[in-house]
Amino acid sequence: MIVPRRLGAFAFAVLAGLLLAACGASEPQPGAREQPGTPAKTSGSGAAAREGTAVRIRIGEQTVPVTVFDTPTGRALLDRLPLTLSFSDHNGAEKTSPLPQPLPMDGMPEGDDPQPADLGYYAPWNNLVLYYADVPYWNGIARIGHIDGDMSAIASHAGDFTATVEKAA
């Protein structure tokens, strides 16, 4: 009676595998990519928003070109340039600096899922954000531009640094 016992164990393993596969593939799980209860991901960086104004970030002797999107938040940032800001690392994925005054969020999505080389604004903390690694969707994030230059000038700073954000000449 060894054959039926092995056959039963095999059938149980196949059935368990099928049940696990059926449960895992139907819906995305909340977790690292989205907060539970958040709206669908939207982007402030659509085709219309990709048109923007050239600015540059000067970090010491290095200059990094950036495009600030034509959005209400992006235009408000442009109106305040030049700005000299103190950046620090946040979670090994982004450099953040508080702004002197909040930027408006009128017409911007409730949150976003920025990609590496995005310029962002995190409204709850009033921070300008330079993303150099992937971060998940988060409420309060607005993509307001794109870093067009070499990200190593930003990502390589292990500690705090000062940078000047100004309109390109």
UniProtKB/TrEMBL annotation:
Gene3D superfamilies: 2.40.100.20. Residues 57-166 form the Cyclophilin-like domain. The lineage of its organism: Bacteria, Bacillati, Actinomycetota, Actinomycetes, Pseudonocardiales. This is Cyclophilin-like domain-containing protein. Residues 26-50 are annotated as: Disordered. SUPFAM superfamilies: Cyclophilin-like. Keywords: Signal. Pfam families: Cyclophil_like2. Residues 1-21 form the signal peptide. InterPro entries: Cyclophilin-like, Cyclophilin-like_dom_sf.
